[in-house]
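Re: weekly structure request thread

Next one in the queue (472 aa):
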Amino acid sequence: MAKENMTGSATDFKPIYVSRGLESIITRNRKSTEQTSGLWTICTKKGEKGKEGEEESMKIDESSEWAFITQVFKLQGTVWIDIYPQLLFAWAMCFVASLTYWLNDNPTNWLPDDVKSMHGTVGTLIAFLMAFRTSQSYTNYVEGRKILGGICNNLREMAMTTYTFRANLTGAEGEEVCRIRRNIRRQINVLYAVIRQHVREYEEGFDDKRIEWDKQSKSFKPHEFEGGGALQEDEKKSGCWIYDPVKPCVSHLIHESEFKTLNKLPSSMRPARIEVELNSLAHALSDHLEEPGFFLQAFSRNAEETMNLFKSAYRIVETPVPMPYRHVLYFLTFCYVFVTPWVYSEPTKTGDCKNDDHDDCKDGEAAWGNGWAASTLICIAYYGVMELAAALQNPFGWDAIDLDLEQFGKRVHNETKCIAEAATSNHGVLDAYDYLDPYYTKSSGSSGIGESQNPLADATALQVGGGEAPMS
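Done, posted below.
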């Protein structure tokens, strides 16, 4: 049955960016394409230079002998911007404390002794709680990097297995093998895209202000998109994810019937649905391989591991630090940091205060500079570390410090494309279709091999959607 479905007409389905009425802009002129309205414009990421500058700001350059000075006072990419309200409040407390002491004739030992003792004891306790909090966050960050690397590795191996197991590549059977392989590579990229969306976009929103995401209700706000008039009324709200501008764009990866089916599923279920499609395609391909058993075993193992890693990634996202723990830590830190100005701004006695009679021991003079340095450093130390721990807690967000999920998606695309090109360069039709730039895929220049065929053109009923006709 699967084999019969895979031989469907090449004109039955169209990619979404084509079915939106954009046939006229499929041109070799890249510049004019970018200036054309429609999904291609939406899927063209803006501000790439700004992104590169942001990445540079996250690096510490230790090559210079003066790095101990130049790198210490960096602003962009550091916690300074995040903790400036706490610093301003600490300085305000320093001023209020100094003013209070001055208005009361600079009394010494004005603070109760238990306040000073508490200050030292609580500082030690906070340091212990903060060390545990920071360790957990950094563990999440490192684990997140391992998970993304594992997902990319497994997807690459799925493509490697698909293209390197020997098959009959002659005649009609060879054409069918090529179609199945192209669609497996496409679905591999779709799988990463829907995993990325559920882990990041459905928690943090989309990197496009036109896609409004209500984080509280976890739903889209309906919006009209340029070039998106073909969406039905009930799809305008739920189907906004198709306009995701992160590359490779989802709209370049799936066809119309797939979108309709995936749009009915919650984001958490879409990876499982794509995995089903991949396994179905793998079984269809195994009918034409010399070693079908080994192929299916290797392919299924990588697919299963990918889904397990996806669940591990989302477990990091949906498992926050318990609220009572965070509340205690924030409360103790607040008390400790903002009591510091009162402890260190207190005037000290002058004269000889060691004698028993204390005849020469007098109250101190007004010292408006007392406590400012200590309050500043303690505020930076405690609140800076807390902000850093909060930023590292979820490494799959949009913050500059977070892992770049788009780069991992491009890695999956480029590695699978490289595998497909290498495996098909000496026989059959070259599989070099570029989903990052679907409007302009270069010819290989090899004898007998022309333009790479768009895999969406031979998508069939075996894939998501069951063979529905595209929107006109």
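The chain has two domains: 1-47+167-288+404-472, 84-154+322-349+364-401. The mean pLDDT is 75.
Next request, please.
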